[in-house]
Amino acid sequence: MRYLLKTIAEIRRAAHHQPLSIFGTIITILLAMLLPGIFWLAANNMTAVEKRLKANMTVDVFLVDDISQAGIEKLRGELLTLEGVSDITFYSKRDALFRIRESFGQSIIQDLDDNPLPASFSLTVDDTILEPEAADSLVAHLSALDQVEEVVFAREILYRFSSITGSIKRFGIVITVLVIFSGIFISANTVRVAITDRREVVEIMQVVGASRPYILTPFVLLGGLLGLIGAALSSLALWLIAGYVSRNLAELQFLSLHEIIVFILTGLLLGMLGAILATRRYLKV
Amino acid sequence: MTDCAHDRNFKTMLEVKGVTKEYGGRITALSNVSFELEKGEMAFLTGASGAGKSTLLRLIFREEFPTSGEISLGPYNLAELPGNRIPDLRRHLGYVFQDFRLISERTAYENVALSLEVAGKSTRHIRKRVDEVMQQVGVWQRRKSYPRQLSGGEAQRVALARAIANEPLLLLADEPTGNLDMKNSRDLFELFCKLNLQGATVIVATHQVAMASEFGKRILHLEDGALKQDSK
Ligand SMILES: Nc1ncnc2c1ncn2[C@@H]1O[C@H](COP(=O)(O)OP(=O)(O)O)[C@@H](O)[C@H]1O
Ligand SMILES: [Mg+2]
What we know:
The complex is a heterodimer.
Chain A: H1 2-17, H2 19-55, E1 58-63, H3 69-80, E2 85-91, H4 93-104, E3 120-125, H5 132-144, E4 148-152, H6 156-197, H7 199-207, H8 212-248, H9 257-282
Antiparallel strand pairs in A: 1-3, 1-4, 2-3
Chain B: E1 12-23, E2 27-38, E3 42-46, H1 53-60, E4 68-73, E5 76-77, H2 86-91, E6 93-96, H3 108-118, H4 123-137, H5 152-164, E7 170-174, H6 182-197, E8 202-206, H7 209-212, E9 218-223, E10 226-230
Parallel strand pairs in B: 3-8, 3-9, 6-7, 7-8
Antiparallel strand pairs in B: 1-2, 1-4, 4-5, 9-10
Helix pairs in contact in B: 3-4, 3-5, 4-5
The complex binds adenosine-5'-diphosphate (ADP) and magnesium ion.
Adenosine-5'-diphosphate is lined by residues 23, 27, 29, 47, 49-55 of chain B.
């Protein structure tokens, strides 16, 4: 209890004696943490889109024009035994025409007497098939089947998307590491100034036999508090930004409560770590 | 070493054995100093400026190590004392400086309470003990004043109250009268003697050799780092 009061007194004194340094530290941590926060948000949303994309990924197997009903059933049987194929839908030539009309409007192909569109199977596949090699071998296998005219698996877009998401994540990690280091440095600097400001008292404390933790805890908590407030404000700013983007650009999902807590705790930790660094360098008892 | 600091059944409180302290290999601040101080004894450590008085007190306070020789204080052998036990040692030592070293934004009362807070004493004990020691040194009336509102003599008494609050094994004072006039200096020395009569073990370092000899206490006289005279 006395510890807590001491800490509060120390923090009030620091805020009073060096308001600019305290304020500046919080703002700097706020701004610095915004960057990894944005990357985190972006990566999360990209991953969500990627997941949806994957779930809707189909392999279209177009059949030869003169395939018989028996041939269709036989092929369906064969397809169902394939590894990684979770669902099959058959589209007849007529279905194909409907689908095209739905997409492009009534007028198209309307005038044609003969329906030139092929019948097809649409395969829903597992994530395992989405790996490039598995996908290639599946396509090769399907193409080689009798009665199959052509196989279309539009996976390029998924790969490109995945690679962008991957880059964002890697870049985000680098940024995060950099920001954590600079955050620690900033906190260390501010706490060092606070201790220097209290040099006289710290020395007297040592003379009367105060232990290191007794003297230093308030300063470590000061650093932690700076990080905590900076990170909390940063997550608030992030929330405002995400809201703005959602309203004006594209629907974004914000960080989960769990992730927000991790974000703020990171601020707390880097603040305390910086403070500990400052105190280690400063006090030799 | 077990914590037997509260076991005060030792006769010799301080033992300084062949202590030499050199700085940078060229300056010899202390050379081969030996003496013992019994429990309840008081000594003035005298000598001209630069004789090595402060150095000796710093060694006892474990701010520095002797270049050679040994110091033990009650149950503590300073050479063997690990760094993390220094605060513990200092809670069993009282130290009074020439420049008082009071915390300026704390009242006299709070300054005295500091040494008890640091030792983890209960609030009730602190209140009782602070009143007690402030009365003992005669500054109880000034307990609500801030250091800048105190005269030099009063400030030094507050510092003294802080030093004795924990009932230290040994009370050390380094030129405690350095910032005081003659009258206040004499009063303060008398106060040290009074505390000694009440049982405290005391070393007072001072360059005021003549005044120190008025009190009939043991005199340890240093010259150029060597113990030239021990009146015992
Ligand atoms: N940290 C130090 N580094 C170098 N020399 C020192 C240091 N401390 C004291 N000395 C030297 O040791 C000698 C004794 O100093 P000191 O103990 O302060 O004397 P006194 O307190 O009796 O005036 C002096 O010559 C002083 O210059
Ligand atoms: Mg001196």
